[in-house]
Amino acid sequence: MLKYIIKRVVLMFVVFFIIATMCFVLIKLLPLPNIKAQGRDANLVLEKRKAMGYDKPIMTQYAIYWKNIFNFKKPDGSFGWSPDFGLGEQMYISQPVFDVLTEKLPYTVVVNLYSFIVAVPIGLLLGIYAALRKNRWQDHVVSTGVMLVVSVPSYVYAFLVQYFLCYKFGWFPLTVASREAAGFFSWTMFKSMMPAIIALAFGQIAVLCRYTRAELSEVLTGDYLLLARTKGLTKSQAITRHAMRNAMVPILPMILGGFIDILSGSLIIEGIFSIPGIGALYFTSIGLRDYNFFMALSFFYTLIGLVANLVVDLSYGFIDPRIKMGAK
Q1: 111: closest CA among 267, 285, 255?
Q2: Cα separations (Å) of 174 from 131, 164, 165, 177, 181?
Q3: Is the CB of residue 196 less than 8 Å from the CB of residue 157?
Q4: How far apart are CA 309 and CA 315, in angstroms?
Q5: Is 9 in contact with 325 (CB distance < 8 Å)?
Q6: Residue 298 near residue 220, CB atoms below 8 Å
Q7: Would you give the distance in Å from CA 136 to the centre of its chain?
Q8: Which end of the chain is least crowded, N or C, by CB within 10 Å?
């Protein structure tokens, strides 16, 4: 097991380096934005880019970038600074990228964490209910609703939630509370984030419900459940002690990976609900060719995706001891 973990960790960092290299090269190959259309002095911007080494070969720039990251004498500026030709329009002129990310990242993590906490129990309960009522009208209603939800993008729900719950009924505010006025884990912050939480949770609830129903329906037809009933167990005891335990083996790792799916989907939702997270920052960095912000955010999403995949794979062995990871 230890040998398998070490091998997976090494391969994870290799994949991470390959993806980081591709992101750096591709963003550098993009043409520069129209400087004059932004009302900027083209010569001044080009001089600043030259001073930052952006006129050198791409791989030379890439080597300099990694050298700065591992320069531990200036940890606040290891990921670079926001130049005033980039995200300066969003008032991040000459600020360390790391400081800006640590300021905005909690908003993204909190809204996704709340969505995850809401989506998991609802999705599991709906899936279990549909499986226990298989081929009945309750199952058909739940399955039809799941198909409708899965077929519609999350931003469509965001607009509907924003219109009905925020504008029409006035149940929730249109904007998210600031961290100064309310803590991240306060009721005020939770209520202000509720529209975004609902929009993000819709898709995850549907996917988890469909997957739980399929797994539990298959387990309920197993011969060992019939054997458990013949030994004297009631239907509820057989389902709780045997069916649910076996069905959770593939479902629990999927729940762990579901957090990453929500995190990637929040890029658009954050913009719709004006959440000051890293989602809007990511898109802006691409449009303005702010390489430092783009690379730091690419590092974050790539690393969290790779770590999630590793955790999901390793969790199979802990959930079910019969599964031997790395065995031939």
Answers
A1: 267
A2: 38, 11, 9, 10, 16
A3: no
A4: 10
A5: no
A6: no
A7: 35
A8: C
Kindly state the tokens that stand for 134: 């298989």
Q: Taking Cα atoms as reference points, which of 238, 202, 203, 211 lies closest to residue 127? A: 211
Enter the pTM of the model: 0.76
- Chain position carrying tokens 């802006």: 284
Per the model's pLDDT, the better-predicted residue between 34 and 284 turns out to be: 284
Q: Are 286 and 277 in contact (CB under 8 A)?
A: no
Q: Which two tokens stand for residue 305?
A: 């995706």
Structural tokens at position 99: 């400081």
How far apart are the C-alpha atoms of 247 and 242, rounded to whole Å?
Answer: 9
**Structure-token pair, residue 310:** 């590793």
User: Lowest mean pLDDT: which of 66-75, 149-158, 189-198, 306-315?
Assistant: 66-75
CATH number of the structural domain 107-276: 1.10.3720.10
Sign of CA dihedral 203, 208, 211, 213: negative
